[in-house]
Design goal:
Number of strands: 0
Helix content: over 70%
Oligomer: single chain
Number of helices: 10
Radius of gyration: 16 Å
Order of helices and strands: HHHHHHHHHH
Number of domains: 1
Structural class: mainly alpha
Strand content: under 5%
Distance between the termini: 24 Å
Amino acid sequence: MNEAVLLPALIFLAALLYSSVGHAGASGYLAAMALFGVAPAEMRPAALVLNIVVATIGTVRFARAGCVRWRLVALFAAASVPCSLLGGRLTLPTDVYRPVVGGILLLSSVRLVLDYPKFDGEPRPVPVPAALLCGAGIGLLSGLTGTGGGIFLSPILLFMRWADTRQTAGVAVAFILANSVSGLVGLLSKGATLPSELPGWLVAVTAGGLIGSEFGSKRLGNRTLRRLLALVLVIAGLKMILS
């Protein structure tokens, strides 16, 4: 199969798997684009556009299921949105951008292989200063790299016991949506360009996002597929770092 088939297929798989756990898949899209040599200048805005589509689907689904704690989303987004906008307006040198994104892809591969510890007890109150500080850091990194920040927020929420397992998925996907929109606005204000293949990728992520958010990872029985995608992330991450 050629790039016209393989790249959308990888993007579809990333959207399906990430949406099933309350993420939007930006690291998966970046990995797929890196493997096929998409220019870094086009990778960031494209990943954010795809993220927005999947995060919108996920936010609607998790909100209907009562899993989105909007106050918690607002608390983290208050600092992350402006910082994501700032990050989107900044451009890292290619020799810096590649290893940073490569590191995020490697971290994402670990996320796919190792599940976060489940927490279904009573969540602890979230200190406002801690939420603002975390949100600011995640938002800036999101805008700089073209990701939504869910990979960083989810473990923080669970490890600090600020949200239970289902709430974490709902809060993360709404947080990703806010960051992705803000980061894309920042990029477009700097004259960012989008790849010509984007319409086909949008079809792939829409299908993947709808299926993944509807059925969830357990019902799909996709442990093997998650490991395969983790391998793709590792290969793409190493390629970004070593190129």
